[in-house]
Amino acid sequence: MTSPNSKTATLGVEIEAAAQYLKGRSFPDQRRWLYAYLIKMTNQGSGAITLLRRHWVITDANGETREVRGDGVVGEHPRLEPGESYEYRSMCDLSTAWGTMEGSYTFMDDEGEELEVAVGRFFLVESSENAIVVE
Q1: Whole-model pTM?
Q2: Which of 17, 38, 56, 94 fits a disulfide with 68 by CB distance 3.0 to 4.6 angstroms?
């Protein structure tokens, strides 16, 4: 079976993503499924980078897509030295029982160059109730 999680490396930055269904905070009878997700970003490059922005593409089981763009993540703009990692948790709601998320982060290196880093598609599925572990 294929993992519902993702692990992607772009321009020396590795992004791992995993989701967890929040059964106790979801209301299927009201068409509201809530998922927590965990992101781990690791700087595998040779210079420091700072996270500037995020871009998410969230698609539900009906193929309806919404995009979310914003500054930083969870109110932070982490700076990662070579070899350092940063993890955060956030949430996403859907109007269907399952869906997907994918997107990108924009980082800036110390020379002022922006790096667009991919977040591979990961799945928001009810069977992921205890699957939020990122290795």
Answers
A1: 0.91
A2: 56
